[in-house]
Amino acid sequence: MSATVRLGTCSWADEGLLRTWYPRGVSTAEKRLRYYAERFDTVEVDSPYYALPDPAVTARWAQRTPDDFVFHVKASAAMTWHEGDPTDEAFRQFRGAMEPLELSGKLRGVLLQYHPRFRKSPEALADLARAPDRLAPLVPLVEFRHRSWMADDERADTLAFLERHGLAYVSVDSPLTRASNVSPRVAAGTHSVAYIRFHGRNAQTWNVRGGSAADRFDWMYATEELAEWVEPIRRLATEAEEVYALFNNNRDDFAPRSAAILRGLLDEAGIEATGAVEPPPTELTLF
Questions:
Q1: Are 191 and 168 in contact, with CB atoms under 8 Å apart?
Q2: Given Cys at both, which of 10, 114, 222, 229 links 118, Cβ 3.0 to 4.6 Å?
Q3: How far apart are the first and last CA of the chain?
Q4: 5-274 — its CATH code?
Q5: What pTM does this model have?
Q6: Strand pairing partners for 169?
């Protein structure tokens, strides 16, 4: 039996979404999350990378979403070599901030998006091997930003290591460039959870010095580009128990629009999916 593919975006509160996606009147934090959760049943929260939220905030995330809603949260910079060697304390602080969300049963995975300086080495492998114990029972979602991990002669070894240690490889769609901080487009599963992040394909803005995230991920997917993922997603859905496809192309409303295109393609291909659909209109009655 194949897994259902759950579609979502990497944030429900990016500036572009606030400006172009939410309708007039959906203008508070509570209304926005409820509106989002009517159209998607999963989300990736990237803001904790920059600053950990107060536990009261993560408790409200849980309260404002349906029982079957699934959160994934991006690890703080201190956990992924952006601020030096990750420490047990950095993980402890992260877990403390996320505790209400975790206790709600809605937090599934933690995105470990490693700094490009995190190159494949015995030391890096040893650090990776510590992640499952630091995060259990949450799923460590591993996204590499240095191509040494997925070079042709290292790919099989890397994927085998992740599988052996209970780490979920994050498949990425990003520009095909020769830059060392861009991974190849490889659809692979190393865990019962398969995870795909769609960053867009804007090679011109990917490494612009001083550019914003919205600049880097400024890309509206074309149907033919997302069609390339239909069969890889079908395969992942037969291999994994859970499949998530999250859109990080966060210029304007590009992420939810791109998700809707992929949903249409998956529907046409007979691949079961959720998210990226408008809820049915509320019926008016006289009583």
A1: yes
A2: 114
A3: 44
A4: 3.20.20.410
A5: 0.94
A6: 142
